[in-house]
Structures are given as structure tokens and as C-alpha cells.
Amino acid sequence: MAEHSSQQPFDEADLIARLRTRSPRALEEAYDRYGPMVYETAYRITGCPAEASDIVQEVFLRLTASVQTFSGRGSFTGWLRKVALRAALMKCRARRRRAEVSLEQAPLPFTRRHAPAGVESIALEQALATLSPSLRTVFQLKVVEGYSHDEIAQSLGIRRGTSEVRLHRARQSLQQQLTA
Question: Is the pLDDT of residue 118 over 60?
Fold first, then answer.
């Protein structure tokens, strides 16, 4: 029943092959399927909706070229999340170099499923906003995204121990702020 393409199972390998041929339709499909995940990743790191939207555009504008480097080891979703993560980190580094201060730079609003029991979501958002970008990034990647310390270290170009220390410091800071 090829007439109902929406009922056919998603074929990631086919999408990747079509992206490599620079198919506009494949790029549109990738954007529809993965755009929200790229935005969420970027937003959690940058804390800025405008920057997250810019990162989505950058990632997908370059996707047909960057997909050529995807080796096929691991999932495409994981690879694309790392591409988005790197783009977000580069945007944060550039912002730091420019020393811009924006009122939009607040962490991604946590849903009730992400908020620790007994902690109001708004208080957690405010506390997260006070963390340094390096602490907030590790906290978001570990606690919200569920990455391991090894994955965080590899993605950020730091040692595993550095990731562990940053998470510990982030938790300490959040605990002090939320119990004060």
C-alpha cells in the first residue's frame, strides 16, 4: 500500500542518503522531524529563543554539507543533537567574547515532569538563570537531557571529572538558592 506514505515506517537511512544528494525535499523532511529537537537543545544551552532559532537555521542550512561527515556509527538523532550542541556552545562563546547582556537569557522553562518534586518551576528557572553558562550547560545536559558524564565531556571537549565537578557545583548553587 504505497499510496499511504504517512503510514510507512520512517527510513532514516533513506533520509540520510537523500540529504547527501542535497535533496530539498529531504531537507524539508529533516527539518520537520528534527527541527524541534535542535531548537530545544539550542535553547537549553543558550537560554535565548532568538539565538536558538538562529542555531536551528544555521544547522539546517549547513545540513546537506555536514551530513557528509556522518559516519553512520550511532544514531543520526544523536549526531544531529551534537551538531546543535556544538553550534549552541559556539554561539555562547561568541556572546561571551562580545560581553552582551540580554534579558532574554533565561533557561528553558521546565515542565512539571522535569522539575524536582517539591520545587516550584519558576524558582528553579530563576536559580538556573544565575548559574554560569558552563555550570548550566552541564546541568542541563546531565539532568534534563540524560547524557552521561563521558558523553558530556566528549561533547564539550572537557574531562569527565570536569563534568562531574561542574554538575556538583551547579547542584550546590541551586540547593543554596532554593533553600534560602
Answer: no
Domains defined for the chain, CATH in brackets: 11-105 (1.10.1740.10), 108-180 (1.10.10.10)
Please answer whether residues 49 and 92 qualify as being in contact, where contact means their C-beta atoms are separated by less than 8 angstroms.
Answer: no
3-state secondary structure of 157: coil
Instruction: Please check the confidence at residue 74 and state whether its pLDDT lies above 60.
Output: yes
Task: Report the number of secondary-structure helices (H) and strands (E) in the chain.
Answer: 9, 0
The x, y and z cell numbers of residue 127, run together, are 536559580
In angstroms, rounded to a whole number, what is the distance separating the alpha carbons of residues 73 and 80? 12
- Quick one: pLDDT at residue 35? 94
Residues 60, 104 contacting (CB under 8 angstroms): no
The 3-state secondary structure of 112-143, one letter per residue: CCCCCCCCCHHHHHHHHHHCCHHHHHHHHHHH
| Residues 104/50, Cβ–Cβ less than 8 Å | yes
Is pLDDT at 16 greater than 90 in this prediction? Answer: yes
Query: 3-state DSSP call for residue 122?
Result: helix
pTM: 0.60
Amino acid at 5: S
